[in-house]
């Protein structure tokens, strides 16, 4: 069991114990530290702390005992992964289309998290459990770069930086038609679709959402776009491109069989046979470096067929 010790400063005087500990030990979440208090792992001036809400004073000494991370119930599975980068704190992968990120109802195993538990041998725990820290998510049928934290401190730091200028996320997508402007910004709030709770939509009162786009190449009845996320809302790119009037080819939620109205039969066939949304997370820039995932083969073939 790891032991942390410190002395409360004047700025901590009168604070709740859990808040003071979160300030002293920022690599651990306040919720996690609160659980340690409740479980009797925190002592102030030699006495076990009674509750998270007790107040502390300047000069009091605190000891926190960190138990080893609890074993996770997630099954370790040997699922192939393309690892782009790995160090002591994080791992960056190129997620293939078709891979669900988290175990859930209908996907008890066979997920990215199951694969990570198998491949990553030096997890030091996130939130008190021996598990990978998912910083962000990609939809099942979206491919590309994903960043995973190996420990609590990295998970907290990345989460805090995620929707700031410290992190830059770029995607590519193949969409129906061509936007009127070669470059632009979609600034439209996103919330639950009031007509279909399984979908998101641009709605009044939704959460702030901003996406920058650029037309990379005009294709036959379609375009290849580069997109930059300034915020990270559920289905943000998919919803914003539908709102723009140029939904992503193959998107089962936000586009339909528009290919049926295309007069070129070869284009019709190429689009109709594409099995997923044509969306790929191309790169992520972090304070520690830039990580890129090459365009997957299925999207390369689609783009070539539409040229």
Give the secondary structure arrangement, pairings included.
Blueprint: E1 2-7, H1 17-24, H2 30-38, E2 42-44, E3 47-48, E4 61-66, E5 82-86, E6 90-95, H3 112-119, E7 133-134, E8 143-149, H4 152-161, E9 168-176, E10 183-187, E11 190-193, E12 196-202, E13 210-219, E14 222-229, H5 236-244, H6 265-272, E15 279-286, E16 289-292, H7 297-306
Structural class: alpha+beta
Q: Which whole number gives the mean pLDDT?
A: 90
Order of helices and strands: EHHEEEEEHEEHEEEEEEHHEEH
The low-pLDDT segments are none
The rough form would be described as: elongated
How much of the sequence lies in strands comes to 25-35%
In CATH, the architecture of the largest domain is 2-Layer Sandwich
What is the third-level CATH name, the topology of the largest domain?
A: Pseudouridine synthase
Radius of gyration: 23 Å
Distance between the termini: 61 Å
Describe the largest sheet. Answer: 10 strands, mixed
Overall number of domains = 3
Portion of residues in helices? 10-25%
């Amino acid at each position: 069991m790891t032991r942390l010790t410190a002395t409360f400063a004047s700025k901590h005087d009168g604070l709740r114990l859990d808040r003071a500990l979160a300030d002293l030990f920022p690599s651990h979440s306040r919720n996690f530290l609160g659980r340690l208090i409740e479980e009797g792992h925190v002592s102030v001036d030699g006495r076990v702390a009674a509750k998270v809400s007790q107040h502390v004073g300047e000069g009091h000494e605190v000891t926190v005992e960190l138990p080893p991370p609890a074993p996770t119930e997630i099954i370790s599975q040997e699922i192939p992964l393309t690892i782009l980068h790995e160090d002591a704190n994080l791992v960056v992968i190129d997620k293939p289309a078709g891979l669900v990120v988290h175990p859930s109802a209908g996907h008890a195993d066979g997920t990215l998290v199951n694969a990570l538990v198998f491949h990553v041998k030096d997890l030091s725990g996130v939130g008190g459990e021996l598990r990978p820290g998912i910083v962000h998510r990609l939809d099942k049928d979206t491919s590309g770069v994903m960043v995973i934290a190996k420990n609590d401190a990295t998970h907290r730091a990345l989460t805090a930086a995620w929707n700031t200028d410290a992190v830059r996320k770029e995607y590519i997508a193949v969409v129906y038609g061509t936007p009127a402007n070669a470059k632009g910004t979609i600034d439209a709030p996103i919330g639950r679709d009031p007509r279909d709770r399984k979908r998101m939509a641009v709605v009044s009162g939704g959460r702030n959402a901003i996406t920058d786009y650029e037309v990379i190449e005009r294709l036959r009845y379609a375009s290849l776009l580069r997109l930059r996320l300034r915020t990270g809302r559920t289905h943000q790119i998919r919803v914003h491109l539908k709102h723009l009037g140029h939904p992503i080819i193959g998107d089962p939620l936000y586009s339909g069989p528009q290919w049926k109205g295309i007069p070129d039969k070869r284009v019709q066939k190429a689009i109709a046979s594409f099995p997923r949304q044509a969306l790929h997370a191309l790169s992520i820039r972090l304070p520690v470096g830039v990580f890129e995932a090459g365009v997957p083969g299925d999207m390369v073939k689609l783009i070539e067929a539409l040229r």
